[in-house]
């Protein structure tokens, strides 16, 4: 499982986050965008080193790049009230890599942050590249290309669900299950809106296929997430973490995040 999770995290660092940052039209993000590749490469290399000072130092370089995204998030000017759902999604996306960086530094140093197992910390790194960054950013983007109540709801529930899942790590499986349900509702709404846009708004067949495929993946991958969280909360049979990484993780990373980012880039969408 460790090799697979590392590969997924590398996809998040080197492909998904840079592609997502190019969807933000604000020139204020330019410094963070230019510095990101340095931190991403350092973070990717740290994953393959033995735990210890060298791996921790490289993970810290990644954390500096993530901190630049947080600094940009703080510097963003206030938005009109009608744009608050989109802004909540964008801010969640910008902070997501910093949460991942905290878990990465702890895991690479062998420190059980908040008493979490090192494997859980490794999965947290992956989670906050795809649910924390990609899903939140796409949810915010939908408020521009498919404005309406459904898009606003998705832009609010994806960040809320991500936060509840994080809180569930500290408070118990019931909160984590609630977070999985809220996040799934938001992600399914994202999938429906992306599917509708792919069928009616995409300029060419390849863009439509990329966006439609990313939407279809969510229907299955988030059902897996709910089944796992439900099993953890109730003791019912549910997939193992290794099986979830190989199915839910791969589907969300490649099917949803990568295809989605490429599709939105081809569509010329900006946030």
Automatic annotation (TrEMBL):
What's the source species for this entry?
Actinoplanes digitatis
Record protein name field:
YndJ-like protein
* Keyword presence, Iron-sulfur: no
InterPro entries (UniProt xref): YndJ-like (IPR025450)
Q: Kindly list the residue ranges recorded as spanning the membrane.
A: 6-24, 55-74, 86-106, 126-146, 153-171, 177-195, 207-230, 242-264
Q: Which superkingdom?
A: Bacteria
This protein's UniProt keywords: Membrane, Transmembrane, Transmembrane helix
């Amino acid at each position: 499982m460790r090799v697979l999770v590392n590969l997924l995290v590398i996809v998040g660092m080197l492909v998904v986050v840079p592609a997502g940052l190019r969807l933000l039209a604000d020139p204020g993000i330019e410094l963070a965008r230019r510095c990101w590749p340095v931190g991403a490469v350092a973070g990717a290399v740290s994953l393959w080193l033995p735990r210890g000072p060298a791996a921790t130092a490289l993970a810290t370089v990644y954390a500096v790049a993530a901190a630049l995204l947080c600094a940009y998030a703080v510097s963003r000017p206030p938005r009109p009230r009608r744009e608050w759902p989109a802004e909540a999604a964008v801010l969640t996306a910008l902070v997501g890599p910093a949460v991942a960086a905290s878990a990465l530094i702890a895991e690479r140093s062998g420190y059980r942050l908040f008493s979490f197992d090192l494997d859980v910390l490794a999965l947290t790194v992956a989670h906050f590249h795809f649910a924390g960054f990609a899903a939140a950013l796409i949810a915010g983007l939908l408020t521009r290309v498919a404005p309406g109540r459904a898009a606003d709801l998705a832009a609010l529930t994806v960040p809320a669900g991500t936060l509840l899942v994080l809180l569930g790590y500290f408070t118990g499986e019931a909160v984590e299950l609630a977070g999985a349900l809220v996040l799934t509702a938001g992600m399914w709404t994202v999938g429906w809106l992306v599917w509708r846009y792919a069928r009616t708004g995409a300029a060419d067949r390849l863009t439509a296929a990329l966006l439609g495929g990313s939407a279809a993946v969510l229907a299955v991958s988030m059902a897996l997430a709910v089944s796992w969280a439900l099993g953890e909360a109730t003791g019912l049979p549910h997939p193992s973490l290794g099986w979830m990484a190989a199915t839910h993780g791969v589907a969300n990373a490649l099917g949803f995040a990568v295809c989605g980012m490429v599709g939105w880039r081809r569509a010329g969408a900006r946030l």
